[in-house]
Each structure stands twice: as structure tokens, then as C-alpha cells.
Task: inverse folding
């Protein structure tokens, strides 16, 4: 389709999407698809819009419609897999992530597909396969913040405290962090590991950092059993002072 043939409603939808006016975007996309039922980009942007709204079924349906018209785009299958992952259908999600990795992606990097594949394996408790996928993501992008954080969580769940400590520290030591990145989760995880290893003074520093970034963590620290040894130690007064 030549640029002059792009429906005006589609351009309006894209502008609405970029400014997070999702209701308007969907309205304009409906107009586009009424005028041009086979205009594939409208299905794709509609899928992205539903992803922002966390309407995963509608997102999947629109990406599927796009793929039936333009089947060669790897990003489409990554998005379909992400929708399946959020609908708690991890085995189907894994198939889509694998297919995405076999194709060219222009909007996403392959490490994102490996990360999401690892998260799908986590949902079905296939932790060894999850570990392999996290490693694949980090081999491509060693400073991939989401992958480092999720790898740390996996190591903690596997009770591999030293490895968890290493990955949480890597997250915290990253030179740049996205504003939306939940850095507080890394400090919480690091505090848990440090407390379980008896590194109480270091745990207090991590707890303080976590509380500063996310005050809602106070209730977690007050009730979580991982800090029982810290409570019984000489550091308990400092612990109570931090939590208020």
C-alpha cells in the first residue's frame, strides 16, 4: 500500500496511541478496518493498544489477524507469546517465542524473547529450562536488567543464595536504570539473601534502600520469616528503627 493510500483514521490512531489515548486509538482503528478490512498495520497497532490496556485476549486476536496477512514479522509472534504468557498459557507461549526467534524482529531484540520464554518455563516449574533461557538472554545482553533480576529471583527460589547474591548485586550495580524499572525488588531480594547468610549489617543497608524506593515494603520486612534471625540478633534495634 502506497503512503497516500494509508487511511487518515490510521494516522490519527497512531497519534492517539503514541499519546496514550487508547480509547481514541481503538475508535480510529475500528474506522480504519471498516474502510480497509485487510489493512494489516491497523491490526498490529490495535494489538499493541490492547497490550497497554492488558486486555491480553484481544491483543492476541489482533496480532493473530495481523499474522494471517503479514506472517513474516517476528515481533508479532513475540507479542502473541507475551499475551499467552499473561493468560497463563505458558506452553503455547513458548511455541510462539520459539517461532519469533526463528524470524527477524525489528521492534524487539531476541533477548526479550528468551526472557519471556524463561518466564513461561517458570510458570510450569521447569526451572532448568528457565535457567537456560535466562542465560541465553544474558549471553546476548549481559546488562539486561529484567533478565538479571529474574535470574536472581530464580536462584533465590532454588536456594542458591550465593548465586542469587551475585545477580541481585549485578542489578544494583548497573550504570543506568530505567525510571520504570523496579530496582526496589533487587534491594528486597538482596536483603533476604544477606539476612539468610547472616550478613546482617549489609542486610540493613539493603532494607533501608528498598524502603526508600518503595515504602510499601515495610510491611513485607516486618512479617517475612527470612528476617527472623536478624530480629534475634544485636541488629534488631536498627532493624526496627528503619521500619518505624
Result:
Amino acid at each position: 500500500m502506497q503512503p497516500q493510500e494509508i487511511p487518515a483514521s490510521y494516522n490519527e490512531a497512531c497519534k492517539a496511541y503514541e499519546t496514550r489515548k487508547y480509547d481514541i486509538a481503538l475508535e480510529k482503528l475500528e474506522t480504519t478496518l471498516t474502510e480497509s478490512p485487510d489493512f494489516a498495520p491497523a491490526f498490529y497497532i490495535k494489538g499493541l493498544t490492547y497490550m497497554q490496556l492488558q486486555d491480553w485476549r484481544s491483543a492476541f486476536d489482533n496480532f493473530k489477524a495481523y499474522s494471517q496477512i503479514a506472517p513474516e514479522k517476528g515481533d508479532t509472534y513475540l507479542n502473541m507469546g507475551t499475551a499467552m504468557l499473561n493468560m497463563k498459557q505458558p506452553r503455547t507461549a513458548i511455541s510462539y517465542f520459539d517461532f519469533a526467534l526463528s524470524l527477524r524482529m525489528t521492534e524487539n531484540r531476541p533477548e526479550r524473547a528468551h526472557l519471556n520464554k524463561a518466564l513461561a518455563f517458570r510458570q510450569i516449574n521447569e526451572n532448568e529450562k528457565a535457567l537456560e533461557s535466562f542465560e541465553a538472554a544474558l549471553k546476548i545482553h549481559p546488562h539486561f536488567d529484567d533478565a538479571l533480576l529474574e535470574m536472581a529471583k530464580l536462584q533465590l527460589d532454588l536456594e542458591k543464595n550465593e548465586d542469587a547474591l551475585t545477580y541481585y548485586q549485578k542489578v544494583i550495580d548497573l550504570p543506568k536504570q530505567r525510571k520504570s524499572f523496579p530496582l526496589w525488588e533487587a534491594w528486597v531480594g538482596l536483603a533476604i539473601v544477606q539476612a539468610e547468610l547472616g550478613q546482617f549489617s549489609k542486610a540493613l543497608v539493603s532494607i533501608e534502600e528498598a524502603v526508600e524506593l518503595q515504602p510499601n515494603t515495610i510491611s513485607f520486612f516486618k512479617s517475612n520469616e527470612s528476617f527472623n534471625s536478624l530480629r534475634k540478633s544485636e541488629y534488631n534495634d536498627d532493624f526496627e528503627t528503619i521500619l518505624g
Q: What stands out?
A: The mean pLDDT is 96. The radius of gyration is 22 Å.
